[in-house]
Amino acid sequence: MPETEKSKIVSAISSALFQEALLAELEDSDSDLMNHSDARAAHKMADLTRYMESRQKIPRSTAHRYNLFEHREKEFRQSVRVDPATFDYLLSLIVDDPIFYNGSENPQTDIAIQLAVTLEWCGTFGNGNTCGRLARSYGFGAGTISEFVQRARKSLLRFYSRFVAWPSATKRTTSSAFHSARYGLSGAIGFVDGAYVNFSQKPHVDGHLFFTRKKRYGLNVQIFCDEDQRILHAHTGWPGSCGDALVFSHTQVSKNSERYFAIGEYLIGDSGYALSERLITPYKMPRAAQSDNARFNTIVSSARVVNENCIGALKNRWASLYGARTQIKVAEDFAKVNNHILLCVLLHNVTLQMKDPWTEEDREDVSAAEGESDDEDDDGCCIDTPPASRNAENKREMIKRRVLGNY
């Protein structure tokens, strides 16, 4: 990086002070002491001065920040990824948060603009997902854009448990009835699958641990959802080198399953997971080659499509999840990425509640992310998982007989 004017001046004064100190041993005079004192004062002043010359005001256009709210709905959605009604609802959640009020004579920027910047940040990918690009669009400094995102993210995440929560006993019964009627999967209350959230560059902290089997650096995020693509739980923070079975085994849903499931209830996952009484998976080879097992696998895979669609909808709408641009320089930077992921999960569920779907037409402006998906189905892959218990094997056999009896 080029040396700044300030560093040049400080270095020059430091060099002069060093030379003065050497000469002081040879010539001891009041004049020399006075010059030395003046040099030290100059050094201190230069060190404490942030800018060595007057700052030049950079001309910025403020048109977009105001025109945004005058756009037609299609253009508005392309910018902030939600329709006006959803935007107004999100704004109503955070408008009274003290984080947006500094109590000074210079109030913060309109909360609606801070929210719009944050949503656009979450919904863009690659070069579009930068403070510089948003700064040029909205007419703010890059540092100000970062502050907007941090404030709005913190404020919205206060509502995380309201929108992302494990289903009640009543809702689980409804889900079980749905899967029983549709597929014969009585007791199924939802699905789980892993999704990679890649980093734009290798983390500086334990970077090798985050190298995924897709040859990228990222996190393995476990996404639990129901038949409506509503996310029930998101477990993030684990390195991408860890497989789904390992990460799932460390979730609260797995470790304290009695708190999340009634008798007979279970989730459905792909063959990357270990079979258990609470997680039913397809048969692996060579047993998958048997005709009845193959039929069962096909039906289970058909049911699991909803989980794949859920992850696809999450990433396509909030395209920043295709590649987190936060530089991981210290361990605390991981928390920023994790909170960003949780914010996108919250926004996904809010749009479902608001009946604000993301359509094929809406996807046109995230074409840069096409082909970036690392979340392919693991069914049929040769992934080693811990051996299942006899009870888990018996339960899958019982479910298989019930499922095949419906077809």
Automatic annotation (TrEMBL):
Its main location: nucleus. Keywords: Endonuclease, Hydrolase, Metal-binding, Nuclease, Nucleus. Pfam families: DDE_Tnp_4. Residues 358-396 are annotated as: Disordered. Signal peptide: none annotated. Residues 192-349 form the DDE Tnp4 domain. PANTHER family: GH03217P-RELATED, PTHR22930. Belongs to the HARBI1 family. This is DDE superfamily endonuclease. It comes from Phytophthora infestans.
